[in-house]
Amino acid sequence: MTHPTDTAKSEELTQSAAPPDPVFTSKADLMRWVMEGATMAANDKAVQLLALERIKRVTMAHSHLFGETGA
């Protein structure tokens, strides 16, 4: 059984060791990164929630890549 402070320390280390959010210039690059992150989250239950939250945050930050330009 893990102690609550162990879990808090683990989460703190995970968050402090996280790399900065990436910046993408194309929808294809963003989608490739999302798929890689989803695969990682599916394979590692320990980081699943953190990975999914990061995917959501980065995708929302790049919402301009999904804008339609009328022609």
Summarize the structure.
With 71 residues, this protein is mainly alpha-helical.
- What fraction of the residues are assigned to beta strands by DSSP? under 5%
Per DSSP, the total helix count is: 3
Protein structure class: mainly alpha
The low-confidence parts are: none
Helix content: 55-70%
Task: Summarize the main sheet.
Answer: none
Total DSSP E strands: 0
What would you call the shape? globular
Computed CA radius of gyration, to the nearest angstrom: 15 Å
Distance between the termini: 60 Å
Order of helical and strand elements: HHH
What order do the helices and strands come in, and which of them pair?
Elements lengths: L3 H13 L10 H17 L4 H14 L10
Helix pairs in contact: 2-3
